[in-house]
Amino acid sequence: MAFPKGFLWGGAIAANQAEGAYLEGGKGLTTVDLLPTGKKRWDICLGDLPSFQPLEGEFYPSHTAIDFYHRYKEDIALFAEMGFKALRVSISWARIFPNGDDKLPNEAGLKFYDDLFDELLKYNIEPVVTIAHFDVPVNLVENYGSWKNRKLVSLFETYATTLFKRYKDKVKYWMTFNEINMLLHLPFVGAGLVFKEGDNKEQIKYQAAHHQLVASALAVKACHEISPGAMIGCMLAAGMTYPYTCNPEDVWDAMEKDRESFFFIDVQSRGAYPGYAKRFFKDHNITVEMEDGDEELLKNHTVDYIGFSYYASRATSTDPEVNNMTSGNVFGSIENPYLEKSEWGWTIDPRGFRITANQLYDRYQKPLFVVENGLGAIDELTAGGEVHDDYRIEYLKKHVAEMSEAIEDGVEILGYTSWGPIDIVSASTGEMKKRYGYIYVDKDNEGNGTLQRTKKKSFDWYKKVIETNGESI
C-alpha cells in the first residue's frame, strides 16, 4: 500500500444529515428542513415544492437527525479513538445567517462551529469544511428564487467571507459547493430551485449554475486573501460513465454524460467555460447571462484541489433495446453485467474508483481529495448488541486498495474521508436504515430510538487501516 506521510484519513458528514436541532441557537429554516420522508420527498428534490413551511402530518428527518448538535463531543471522541486525521463537516448557512440576507451573522451559530472545531483540534483532527452542502436558507428561496437570482452571489460571498475571517486559525481545508453537479439532477437539493409550469428548466438550471460558479470563484478569492495558508477546493459527484459497447455512438454518449458533470469542475479548476458547453448552450437555445468581469473572476480564482465523492460507476447505451436501468442512484445508468449491486441498486465497482481518480487527475493536474466513499446497507444489531458488517469492510477494503493503486499510478491524493463514519440520515431517501457508519445509531426511519451509539465491526477495521497508514487493510 502506498499512502504518503500525512495522508488525511477520516470521515465525512453533513450538517443537515447529522446535526438536528433545526431551529435551535437562532438557526433559520433551510431547504433540507422542507424534505419529508415518503412520496413527496422525490418530487420536492426535483423542484416541486408545495410549501415554504414544514407540512402537518409529515416526518422531517433533518429536524432531529442524529442530534450531532448536542452530541458532537461524544461522537468526536469515537472518531479520535479510530485515529481520524480529518473530519469533513459542513456549516449550515442558516445557522450563520438565519434568513440568508441578515445584516449581521448569528453569534450563537458561529460559536457552535467554533466549539466543534476546537473539539476536533483537541484530538489533532483537521476540520475539512464544506461551505454549502445541499442547504439554502428558505427565505432566499421564497423571496429571491434562490440561485436563479444573481443577488445570491453577493449573499454567498458575505457568508463565505464571514467564515474565513472567523475560522482562519482553525480550518486549513475548505470546499465551496458539495457535489455541485447535483444541481442538474436534483435542482431543489443542489440549488434550492423551485419550478412552475411552463418554466424552461434547462435555462434556469444553467443560469443558477453560473451564479454558483461565480460565487465559488469569489469564495476562492476571499479565502486566498484572508487565509493564505489554507486550501480551498471544489467538489464533484464523480464516477465515470462506461459505454455499454464499443459502438462509437455509445462511446460518444458516455463522453457526453461525463462532460455534463465535468463542466462544473472545468470552470472551477481551469477557469473558463469549455467549448463543448458553449456548443450545448447553442444547440439547446440556452443563454447564460453574465456580468462584466465574470469571465475574469472565473479565470483568476480557480480552486486548489478537486474534492470528489465516489460510490459507483455508470454505463450508457444508445440502443433502445438496452433499457435495463439500475435503481437507487440519482444518476441514470444501464445495469452493468460485470458488477455486483448494493441493496439500493448501486453498482459496486472498486476498479472504477481507480479509473475515476486517474481520469480526474489527468484532466486537472491538481491534488484530489476523496471526500465521500462508502456502502449504504441495512445493518442488524445482534442479540448481544453487535453489528457484524463484514460486507462494508469488504467494500471499503477493495476501494482503499484501488486508491492505493491510483497513488502508485502517480495520482496525488490528499486524503480519504469515507461517507457517514457514523450512521446519519440518507440525503436521497431520508432513511436511517440505509447506514454507512462504523458507528451504529439507534434510530429508525420513523424517528424512534434511543440514539445510543454502538461500534460496529468495521470500527476496529478502519482504526487499524489508519494506524498503519493503509498498510493493513
Automatic annotation (TrEMBL):
InterPro entries: GH, GH_1_N_CS, Glyco_hydro_1, Glyco_hydro_1_AS. GO terms for molecular function: 6-phospho-beta-glucosidase activity. Pfam families: Glyco_hydro_1. Keywords: Glycosidase, Hydrolase. SUPFAM superfamilies: (Trans)glycosidases (SSF51445). It comes from the Bacteria. It is an enzyme of class 3 (hydrolase). The active site is at 372 (nucleophile). The keyword Hydrolase applies. Its EC number is 3.2.1.86. Gene3D superfamilies: Glycosidases (3.20.20.80). The keyword Hydrolase applies. Belongs to the glycosyl hydrolase 1 family. This is 6-phospho-beta-glucosidase. It comes from Metabacillus endolithicus.
